[in-house]
Amino acid sequence: MNGSEIAWYSHEMCFWHDPGPGSGYVPVGPGVEPLRQFAVDPDLRRAEGLVKASGVLDRYTCLTPAPATDEDLLLVHVPEHIERVEALSALGGGDAGVYAQVNHHSAQAARLAAGAAAQAVRQVLDGRFRRAYCLVRPPGHHAEPDRAMALCLYNNVAIAARAAQRRGARRVLVLDWDVHHGNGIQRVFYDDPDVLYVSIHQDGLFPPASGLVMETGTGAGAGSTLNVPLPPGTGHDAYLAVVSRVVAPAARAFGPDLILVAAGVDAGGHDPMGRMLCTSRTFHAMTSMMCRLADELSGGRIVFVHEGGYSAWYQPTLVLGTASAIAGLPAPQDPFLHALDHLPGQRMQSHQRRVIEHLEARHPLLLRPSAGTGTVGGAADE
Ligand SMILES: [Zn+2]
Q1: CA-to-CA distance for 97 and 147, rounded, in angstroms?
Q2: Which of 2, 33, 66, 170 is the most buried (most CB within 10 A)?
């Protein structure tokens, strides 16, 4: 892979958004002294710096995204939501929803994040690039049509999927491996048979009681949602098994024209917000598997959009692992691997295997013998 085939989207202003006390710690008060918040978006600048210093960024064409237009945002969000984000940001701060603090720069950063995802999808569908990575903030997968949630202002990946449909993609697979459940993406496409949403997340983490195995879509979209809630402490082997035994067969049954990955790295083993054990090797391997799946199913068209990731020291290495795999390069050196790779949870545990076996036996999409039978809904009857 070289710069004529893969694109990198980032923008300095995405690093100026800061969700402040909405990012995990309770505000300073009795028993709480001032301290660093989890979600410090300038950390993403360090991630980009590592990808650059490693030479991996040289393999990409680096692009500056245009901000999302109102038309882009309205593909997913109601006008009142957009107005609320912009008004609060103009005032200098406030909560645009539920745990979704903004600062003066957030409205601009959020438009750039959504704009990058939409632009990446359009350029991949137009054939200018085969693969793309958007290193953007604020994240998006919790944002619902009418409200911001949990650091997410606009739903970048959902907007990109809708933009893809407008650009002629008939079927879009969205894989979300952020450690939290992407309730916002799920809600947008819950009744849409042409967008398959697959989420691999820590069971019961956030939002509470969201992303259960029995949430599989509704109406025409029945069977087009696939949740893989894994127990805390899940690591490398189980994540790769989910991709090969759940995601890949579901994708083959679905037959996407484009694959989108909500590529958070907060399932990393050093992340303060998750309790999973993934390493740079895990993200490198999952990314390679998804790129191969795109080559097999969607003409190679695949777009990765950054979501969560809150370890100041490990996030850059995990982004580098993802970026290296997209470029077809080997897994990078990982100075933090030794603290994680010997832990028992890196090998498949029986309680992790049971989640996979449950889905293999019950999810309508995994029961289908082959692709190309029209809508996802009704698959269990075939
Ligand atoms: Zn997350």
Answers
A1: 5
A2: 66
